[in-house]
């Protein structure tokens, strides 16, 4: 093995396959030994048991994902120019897909972590504000460089660090939520999605402020809402409901456990000029609400199930699968004749084939004959590298019952 100027992570025999196929993660169990004493976030070489170069990675001493690969090319400095090229590529790719980084009201994901070449870094644009999650020690090491480059290339009004996810704890990183550039208002930021106005609380909203990954699904499901009674479960600030109203829904029932989220949903109805008489806001646990509707024999023409992640780890897979089965069973029993169900999972460990099987089993137990009309995934600003299937976390089905 040639002498290296940086620490070297040597893999166990046979564990080089994923890296040789450009997968960006090296787990602790794949490592035979480490040459040198890398600190958290240091750049290391990754080599096979036979000494072949596999890539340059950020090293983590805390996470089970011990190395996150920056590049698979030798003699590539991991420096400002490296990240400048990555951000340029991400910007140009978004422009090609119809996302304008300089549109003062647009909202989309600019950097999608591993899938855009910066493992553990998510950059979401809300109007003229960038909201950023840093979830790995490698991205943490270069965070200041990343912020400076984003300012140069995007010219945002402000940049907010939403580094308050518990995922950071697994990397041994502190939790933070702070403005790191310019001005980030405490009041919600207005952005426009497919003609609908939204107010996004970047400081306190879910994730980086909102669920940008459901953009396409909100628009496509809304097209089926005309003259229908729509039930939007786990409604958050009412995105699916607003697009249902835009398409002429007869009545929209928004159900969420958060009083604050429903208050924002209420304000957005007025902001977009919809009739509040066509909307019912319900503060309730969704499972309990669905059981109440079942017991009272209430039905709906279109139901949306967009729950939070049910599966955090492999040990939760069986329990999470039961949760998806139960909630889809309840919803299917509430569908009116020819009714539709848009059902989703954002659990990365829930593969589409398994999700479809769970929904099919729920339909059998509900004694409903259903057809799949559409399948949903992440929009084009949430790309998935073919070498990183874990990046495909969002999946959904649109069903219609007899």
Automatic annotation (TrEMBL):
Gene Ontology terms for molecular function: methyltransferase activity; RNA binding
A cellular component term, taken from the record's GO annotations: cytoplasm
CDD domains: AdoMet_MTases (cd02440), PUA_RlmI (cd21153), RlmI_M_like (cd11572)
Compartments in which it is found: Cytoplasm
This protein's record includes keyword GTP-binding: no
Swiss-Prot/TrEMBL keywords: Cytoplasm, Methyltransferase, RNA-binding, rRNA processing, S-adenosyl-L-methionine, Transferase
Domain PUA intervals: 7-92
SUPFAM superfamilies found in the cross-reference section: PUA domain-like, S-adenosyl-L-methionine-dependent methyltransferases
Family in the record: Belongs to the methyltransferase superfamily. RlmI family.
Protein's name in the database: SAM-dependent methyltransferase /23S rRNA m(5)C-1962 methyltransferase
Organism: Hallerella succinigenes
Upper lineage: Bacteria, Pseudomonadati, Fibrobacterota, Fibrobacteria, Fibrobacterales
């Amino acid at each position: 093995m040639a002498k290296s100027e940086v620490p070297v992570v040597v893999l166990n025999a046979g564990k080089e396959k994923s890296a040789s196929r450009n997968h960006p993660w090296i787990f602790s169990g794949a490592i035979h030994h480490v040459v040198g004493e890398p600190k958290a976030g240091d750049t290391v070489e990754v080599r096979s048991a036979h000494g072949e170069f596999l890539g340059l990675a950020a090293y983590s001493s805390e996470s089970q994902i011990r190395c996150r690969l920056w590049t698979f090319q030798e003699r590539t400095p991991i420096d400002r120019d490296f990240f400048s090229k990555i951000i340029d590529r991400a910007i140009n790719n978004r422009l090609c897909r119809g996302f304008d980084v300089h549109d003062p009201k647009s909202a989309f994901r600019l950097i999608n972590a591993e899938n855009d070449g910066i493992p553990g870094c998510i950059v979401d644009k809300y109007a003229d504000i960038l909201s950023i999650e840093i979830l790995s020690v490698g991205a943490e090491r270069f965070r200041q460089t990343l912020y400076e480059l984003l300012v140069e290339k995007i010219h945002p009004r402000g940049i907010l660090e939403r580094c308050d996810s518990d995922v950071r704890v697994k990397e041994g990183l502190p939790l933070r939520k702070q403005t790191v550039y310019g001005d980030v208002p405490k009041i919600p930021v207005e952005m426009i999605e497919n003609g609908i106005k939204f107010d996004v609380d970047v400081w306190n909203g879910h994730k980086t402020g909102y669920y940008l990954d459901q953009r396409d699904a909100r628009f496509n499901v809304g097209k089926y809402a005309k003259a229908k009674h729509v039930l939007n479960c786990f409604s958050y600030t009412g995105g699916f409901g607003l697009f249902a109203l835009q398409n002429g829904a007869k009545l929209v029932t928004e159900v969420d456990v958060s009083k604050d989220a429903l208050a924002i949903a209420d304000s957005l109805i007025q902001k977009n000029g919809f009739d509040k008489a066509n909307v019912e806001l319900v503060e309730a646990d969704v499972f309990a609400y669905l059981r109440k509707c079942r017991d009272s024999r209430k039905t709906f023409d279109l139901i949306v199930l967009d729950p939070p992640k049910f599966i955090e780890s492999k040990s939760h897979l069986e329990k999470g699968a039961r949760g998806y089965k139960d909630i889809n069973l309840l919803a299917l029993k509430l569908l009116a004749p020819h009714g539709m169900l848009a059902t989703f999972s954002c659990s990365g460990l829930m593969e589409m084939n398994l999700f479809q099987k769970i929904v099919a089993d729920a339909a059998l137990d509900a004694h409903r004959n259903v057809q799949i009309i559409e399948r949903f995934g992440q929009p084009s600003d949430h790309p998935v590298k073919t070498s990183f299937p874990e990046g495909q976390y969002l999946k959904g089905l649109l069903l219609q019952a007899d």
